[in-house]
Structures are given as C-alpha cells and as structure tokens.
TrEMBL record:
Subcellular location: Cytoplasm
Residues holding NAD(+): 9-14, 137, 251
Principal location: cytoplasm
Domain of life (superkingdom): Bacteria
Record has Transport as a keyword: no
Function of the molecule: Catalyzes the reduction of the glycolytic intermediate dihydroxyacetone phosphate (DHAP) to sn-glycerol 3-phosphate (G3P), the key precursor for phospholipid synthesis.
Residues of the active site: 187 (proton acceptor)
Entry GO CC: cytosol
Domain Glycerol-3-phosphate dehydrogenase NAD-dependent N-terminal: 4-153
The protein's name in its UniProt record: Glycerol-3-phosphate dehydrogenase [NAD(P)+]
Length: 322
C-alpha cells in the first residue's frame, strides 16, 4: 500500500519521527541508503545502529529503494544539513511534486544557505518546509511529549501540520522560515560554546552569559538575513537553545565539553554546529557575531581556550540591547 509519509534518512532523528508517526497510525516508509541496515531493521524491528532500544511499530516499513518511500506525498528529509543537497540532487526526479520537509539544522558550507533554501535552489517552485525545535530523537521515539516548529513560507499548511502531529508530538506553524532555521542552526554553535565553558570549568554563570549573548547574536543575524528576531522567542530559538545548551544528551554540547576538558571529541557523531560555525563565520562581522566567530576560530585551532576567553572578555563594553 502507498505510504502516507516517506522518511529519507534512517539516522536517529528520521527513525524517531518515523516511529512516532507510525505509532499514531500513519503508514510510513523509512528509507536508508544502507541496504544492510534496512535488512537488519526489517528483521529485528529495531534501528540498532542509530536508535537502539525502541521497537519499530507495525506501520513502519524500512525500505532500501528510495522510489518506494517517495511514493508518499509528504517526504521528511532527515539527513545532516551538509548532505541535504546531494540527497535531493541525486533523487530530484523521484522527489518531484512531493511536499519536502527538511528535518535538519545547519547552514550549508560554501553557499551559506539554510536547508529550505537548498531545497529551493535544487528544486525551484516546490513546496518546502522545515521541521525544527527542541527534541531529542530518543524522547520522540519513546512517545515523550514534544513540541516543534513547522516553518513554511506563506500562510502555512494546516493539513501538513495535522499530518505530522501526533498526541505527543505537537507541531506549531511558523511563517518565518529564515528565523526558525537560523535558530535551529545557531543554537548548535552556542551549545558547543556552552559545553566548552562547562568542560573548561569556567562556570555556570559564564554559560548563562554565553547563552544569552549567543541568543542576541542569532536575533541580529536573523534580522540581517530577512527573518525576524521575534521568531527566536519560540520553540525553534529559545526552546532549542535551552535544551541543547543544558543537556549532556546533546552531541553539540558534549563536543564542546570534550574540547573544554582538553579531550578529543567523538568525531563519529553528527555534530551540526561545527560546519555551521564555519559556514557563518566565513563572511561574518566578528563584532556582530562574536560567539559564533570565536567558536569557529577555536574549532579551527586559530585560538586556544584561554585566548578565546580573554578575547571575548576584553571586547569593548556596550549596551545590552541593540
Ligand atoms: N538526533 C536528534 O536528537 C535530533 C537531530 N536533529 C537533526 O537531524 C539531522 C540528522 O541528525 P541525526 O538523525 O541525529 O543524525 P545521525 O548521525 O543519527 O544520522 C544521519 C543519517 O543520515 C544519513 N545520510 C547522511 N548523508 C546521506 C546522504 N547523502 N544520503 C542519504 N543518507 C545520508 C546517514 O546514513 P549513513 O548511516 O549511511 O551514513 C544516517 O542514517 C541533523 O541536522 C540534526 O541536527 C534534529 C532534532 C533532534
Ligand atoms: O537538535 C537537537 C535537539 O533539539 C539535538 O541536539 P544534538 O544534535 O546536539 O544532539
């Protein structure tokens, strides 16, 4: 039978969304590029590699043929932001005419584009949205209450909101696609900074300062790029910043924490904030985005930890707002 929703990318987030939607009675096809992973999921009814410990419900079908998943009218694209263009370019024919929902947080290196802008670039004229906001995959998969932002240009799509919401997974519509995506992308960079600060023992007061000043700079960037700073007060901004900067479940936070402790971070994990920091810092004014630029410089080894702290602390004193 034709799936109602296709999920492209069987990582932690894609699998969690597929589980939640299938549990709520939708017919879901979950595609992975790894045929062995698909066979294992079909056999064990679990994604042991990316989301162990949660059963795949009966309504979820793992598929290795992308065309099979793409029969669904709505497709969730749950791959890292740096992989989105390739996925869409390689499968443009199958994706034609579908509602494409980017389920990733980041800024493309080189182009500086946000996920829906990448979709618009590769498939102009299509219906494109983004699902973002505070959620750990394991929470969604286990049916814990979660609220996310579904951002799309224009008035929004009530039917899409309904199709992707469940009793435990509440989606809120947002028109400011730029602000929502910058919130999701930049909170990962600030979370790396928060992890560094705690890992290095600079203290929780310093983390609160970084989160707040980081939040201010995301707002400045949103306005510069045609979004609205007010969007950042929502789930995709404040909500996700709080979650990611305060939990050791966050890969971005843990990445920073390892650096702060002088340890090697786990490079096998998807840590979106690294590339996003570099993508934004590439053409940013450090006065406007001091935290993001410093995170990028630290990750590239251009500054050391103590030097980064001193450089941030020796910036000229200024008004809090504006
Ligand atoms: N995990 C979470 O709690 C949350 C994640 N997100 C966001 O979701 C996005 C995905 O993260 P997450 O699922 O955690 O990452 P994972 O590392 O768990 O999985 C990434 C998946 O993407 C696949 N992939 C990568 N490149 C391609 C490609 N070119 N074509 C097809 N598949 C590809 C990988 O396949 P392979 O295994 O073959 O490499 C893997 O299955 C990120 O932007 C993240 O910020 C958002 C909210 C929560
Ligand atoms: O985006 C997330 C929470 O909303 C997941 O955070 P990490 O990618 O840092 O694990």
């Amino acid at each position: 039978m034709r799936p109602e929703i296709g999920v492209l990318g069987a990582g932690a987030f894609g699998t969690a969304l597929a589980i939640a939607l299938a549990q709520a009675g939708r017919r879901v096809a979950l595609w992975s590029r790894d045929a062995a992973q698909v066979r294992a999921m079909a056999l064990t009814r679990e994604n042991t590699a990316r989301l162990p410990g949660v059963d795949l419900p009966a309504g979820l079908t793992p598929v290795s043929d992308l065309d099979e998943a793409a029969r669904a009218p709505v497709l969730l694209l749950a791959v890292p932001a740096q992989s989105l263009r390739r996925l869409v370019e390689e499968n443009a024919h199958a994706l034609q005419g579908r509602v494409l929902v980017a389920c990733c947080k980041g800024v493309e290196l080189g182009s500086g584009l946000l996920p829906t802008q990448v979709l618009d670039d590769v498939m102009p004229g299509g219906r494109h949205a983004v699902l973002t906001g505070p959620s750990f995959a394991a929470d969604i998969a286990r049916g814990k209450p979660t609220a996310l932002t579904l951002a799309m240009a224009g008035r929004g799509d009530d039917a899409l909101q309904e199709a992707l919401s469940t009793h435990h997974l509440r989606l809120y519509l947002e028109e400011d696609v730029i602000g929502a995506q910058l919130g999701g992308a930049l909170k990962n960079v600030i979370a790396i900074a928060a992890g560094v600060v705690l890992g290095a023992g600079f203290g929780e007061s310093a983390r609160a300062a970084l989160m707040t000043r980081g939040f201010a700079e995301i707002g400045r960037l949103a306005e510069q790029r045609g979004g609205q700073a007010a969007t950042l007060f929502g789930l995709s901004g404040f909500g996700d910043l709080v979650l990611t900067c305060t939990s050791e479940k966050s890969r971005n936070f843990r990445h920073g924490q390892a650096i702060g402790r002088g340890e090697a971070p786990d490079d096998s994990q998807t840590v979106e904030g690294v590339m996003t920091a570099h993508a934004i810092a590439a053409d940013a004014d450090p006065d406007m985005l001091p935290v993001t630029c410093m995170v990028s410089a630290l990750l590239r080894g251009k500054v050391g930890l103590e030097q980064a702290k001193d450089l941030l602390l020796s910036r000229p004193l200024r008004r809090e707002r504006g």
